[in-house]
Amino acid sequence: QVQLVESGGGLVQAGDALRLSCAASGRTSGQWFMGWFRRAPGKEREFIASLNWMTGNTAYGRFMKNRFTITGDDARNTIHLQIHNLKPEDTAIYYCAVRPDSSSSYDYWGQGTQVTVSS
Question: Residue 109's closest CA among 11, 19, 26?
């Protein structure tokens, strides 16, 4: 089992920046991909970004790369999501997840952290 705990969410104003974190613990060996997703009210879950611990490569969802940046720490158990110039439409629950490789599904998910952006 892998446990994922997100943190850093909150109520912010439009134009602010925010840094979310996700700490992984448990049987993380072999879980090479960690990713960020979000679900806004009334919408489907949306892929934001992922990090491949083996290569250091990152991938971003459509239209995400300009304001979202994913990074990971040297211990390979925590990822961060830096969000710049927050907009009200960024209001969502932000989740992190892990998977062993790019062809597998994300099997482990955190509980999410709420981000609310006021205009």
Answer: 26
